[in-house]
Amino acid sequence: MARHTSILIVDDEEIMREILETLLSREGYSVRTAASGAEGIELAKSIPFDAAILDVMMPGMDGMAVLNELKKLDDDLPVIMITAFASVENAIAAMKRGAFDYITKPFKNDEVLVVIRNAVERRQLIAENTALKQNLQAQTQNFAGIIGRSPKMKQVFDLIIQAAPSRSTILITGESGTGKELVARAIHTHSSRPDKAFVTVNSGNLPPELLESTLFGHVKGAFTGAVYPKKGLCDMADKGTIFFDEIGNIPLETQAKLLRVIQEREFMRLGGMETIKVDVRIIAATNCDLRQMMEAGRFREDLYYRLHVINVYLPPLRQRKEDIPILAQHFLVKYGEENNKRALELAPEALDLLMDYHWPGNVRELENVIERAVVLATGPRIGGDLIPDQVRTAPAFQIPKFVVPPEGISFKDVITSVEKRLIESTLEAAGGVQKRAAELLGIKPTTLNEMIKRYEIGARRSRRPTGADDEDPASAAASYDGDETLKSS
Ligand SMILES: Nc1ncnc2c1ncn2[C@@H]1O[C@H](COP(=O)(O)OP(=O)(O)OP(=O)(O)O)[C@@H](O)[C@H]1O
Ligand SMILES: [Mg+2]
What we know:
Blueprint: E1 6-10, H1 14-26, E2 30-34, H2 37-46, E3 51-55, H3 63-73, E4 79-84, H4 88-96, E5 101-105, H5 109-141, E6 142-143, E7 146-147, H6 151-163, E8 170-174, H7 180-189, E9 198-202, H8 208-216, H9 233-236, E10 241-245, H10 252-264, E11 266-268, E12 275-277, E13 281-286, H11 290-295, H12 301-307, E14 310-314, H13 324-338, E15 345-346, H14 348-356, H15 362-376, E16 381-382, H16 389-392, H17 411-429, H18 434-441, H19 445-454, H20 484-488
Parallel strand pairs: 1-2, 1-3, 3-4, 4-5, 8-13, 8-14, 9-10, 10-13, 15-16
Antiparallel strand pairs: 6-7, 11-12
């Protein structure tokens, strides 16, 4: 245990340094000595020590002062004070200031060795404890390779832990780039079958027949070119997990067959008659709104409900910005290693830019931005200049995605409701001041006022208490304050 354990001795008397050095070296400690406090501190700055022995009475900087300085460098360093018998009080004062123990002169060799051993043991305990704590922290911020510390991601981790061991079907939803595939893999690793296959089906844009033969295999002669019988992905995933990525892209015909796999755990080969049993865990992912697709008749209702047994929703990155710094750090290390650039550092102004951006491409986009910055970096520091334009000049405004129902929709109604929403949001941003809102929208205040009246846009509780809180919003239409011209018009 004494191997590689390093001890610092600070004493102005040469004979004392020699006695202690001989004693401790013989025990296998590696010993460094200093003849003055200042010299001892210099040493401690350049070499990490496991314990230190300080003489209290020294000319110049005394032991107490050295103790203070050493503690500033390393608060956990056990420091042992050596005092003349007469100054035990001093030693006690030193203990109060954080010294580990003290020895009075003259001392016995064994006494010194016991104290040092205790000190080193405690030092190791503290070190182990710290490592343990760091590990625990790492575990909660990095769950099976999913980085996150936001409460929203912690919930996701909890849900994975709860749901993974069962065989229930899991649907993972979330915008593109939020980590759905990562989560699917994490579920598999935490399942009761982590050593079995994890098979991904990219439901993508394969024509139905090809998709089905990929999934279920086919018999000889099932279609032109099917010269040999072939097994499918469902066979490969037996006893393991099958992951349907982009389940929303699966054509209706195939959906029925998939339903059978989920319900009965069985399927038939393309062109075949025989029923094949499989034991698979099914995980599906999508970034579409399946409910909307179902209502539009593009997704089977029964399949929808079968998939929805357990839903893991991954929130967009802009709704969990506290994850951005640790994700950025994670990718910095990852791409730093790949590119042989270690110890890279993200400058505060670069991180600010990352924090302000709305990340429509979510974690994938962040990963790409960091990878690019790492590749382009010429020094250890990644400054704002390495952050691409799209991130720095990010428009905070996003047009919502429209999904037109199959029965069609009135163009006028849509435009009207968009206009109404836009005005409401702008008024909110302008604190209810119509003139300011009109400026923000680049329209004339009179035009805005007309629209507010036409759409019967109500005043939300504005910054000035008006006592009109219980007023019907419609009747308060004209009560936006702060715009004298309009009020008198
Ligand atoms: N929380 C995270 N921690 C670490 N890496 C992440 C995290 N989320 C996503 N990533 C990384 O971002 C990239 C995109 O993630 P993934 O492919 O899982 O997203 P997705 O939701 O499946 O996207 P899409 O809908 O476009 O398929 C991957 O490289 C993934 O490793
Ligand atoms: Mg994906």
